[in-house]
Amino acid sequence: MTTDQADGAVSLHLAGRFSLGDLTALHGALMQAATAGPFLVDLSGVTRLDTAAAWAIAEADAKATAAGHSMQITGASADSAALIQTVRDALPNPDTPPAKPMTLALWLDGYGRSVMGAVSFLMQLLGFLGLFLSRLARALRHPSEFRLTALVHHCHEVGLKAVPIVALMAFLIGIVLAFQGSTQLKQFGAEVFVVDLIAVSILRELGILLTAIIVAGRTASAFTAAIGSMKMREEIDAMRTLGIDPAAALIVPRVLALLLMLPILGMIANAAGLFGGALMSWVELGISPAMFQSRLIEGTDVSHLMVGMIKAPFFAIIIGVVGCHAGMQVGNNAESLGQKTSAAVVTAIFSVIVIDALFSIFFAQVGI
Questions:
Q1: Which residue from 213, 368, 208, 206 is spatially nearest to 277, judged by alpha carbons?
Q2: H-state helical runs in the chain
Q3: Rounded to 5 degrees, what are φ and ψ at 48?
């Protein structure tokens, strides 16, 4: 295979036998010539040409045509020319659908479909919540059917293993609140009120909210991946064949473990956040731990803690239901598992923030 260039035109002379083993070199040379400009392919010296080599030539012809160049084939035998033409005719030529003009009717149609899809998804989550409640009620009526071992295992996975990351997050949040609050309050000589800022922010909102967000990212994905993997391997179908209810065996222990452990994680986050705030207040403002404790007890009502803790069961249920529902929707391939896992995390975090906003509006209306 030799290449000549004269008067701006490239000539590629092929000689010998060309088969699948020569495809890489031949395809590279043809593609390079196709992008350079008009070129000629001389096949007079070719003794054998298989389908792979013919495909490379046909691809180069299509590439040159797309680039606005021309390719000329000379010296090809009747068999080689027929083979190249056959391969050229067999190349895929996907049809590009015409772009539809964006009209008001099309926009309304797309918007309506999106709204109905969201409503349908919400109804599925409500149905899954009802399934959990019905299986939980059955387990309470028939305690022998309840899987205590699975509950303890999931409590360990959901709660105990999440303590370090939750405590560290809350500790750092307390430090940040104390530092930023002291910077602003120093301007007014009201540094002591940084204790109230830290206490109300952590106990009422940030402690349980950030804990729920971390648990949503950590646990919702784990639930989806575990149940989705079982669904891919047809283990859930096998459970039904054996007379085991998948909802009672897989969903109830997971959601119930989250329901039990999230309030505990919230309390740990509150304690760590207050400790971090007290430490930074001592370092930055000189507020001793005893003064911090005294101001915390005097200026912070227990209602702030109750407001935060009331949200925990609702956060836990929505995170568990979203994670388990996404796992049951996984298809038979790994791509579906990845998509559902990502969707579960996003949906769980978004739902937690929405519920927190609704609680804030409710407590503001009732004056708590």
A1: 206
A2: 23-36, 51-66, 78-90, 104-141, 148-158, 163-185, 194-200, 207-215, 221-232, 235-241, 246, 252-285, 289-299, 302-328, 334-366
A3: -150, 135
For the chain, give every domain's residue range: 2-90, 120-366
Contact status, residue 322 vs residue 351, Cβ threshold 8 Å: yes
Q: What is the pLDDT of residue 5?
A: 65
Dist CA 169 CA 209 (whole Å) = 12
Distances (CA, A) of 86 to 18, 65, 79, 201, 299: 17, 18, 10, 73, 86
Judge contact between 170 and 268, C-beta under 8 A.
yes
225-246 tens-digit pLDDT = 999 999 888 888 898 888 888 8
Contact (CB, 8 A) for 308 and 266 = yes
Question: Could you tell me which residues are beta bridge partners of residue 12?
Answer: 3, 41
How many angstroms from the chain centroid is the CA of residue 88?
42
Mean pLDDT, range 14-27, rounded to an integer: 76
pLDDT reading at 103 higher than 70: yes
pTM of the model: 0.70
- Identify the CATH class of 2-90: alpha beta
Report the residue count for the chain: 368
d(CA 305, CA 322): 26
Q: Are 242 and 345 in contact (CB under 8 A)?
A: no
- Any idea which residue has 């010998």 for tokens? 16
Contact 158, 212 (CB under 8 A): no
337-352 confidence digits (pLDDT tens): 888 999 999 999 999 9
Measured CA to CA in angstroms, residue 354 lies from 99, 152, 349 at distances of 37, 30, 9
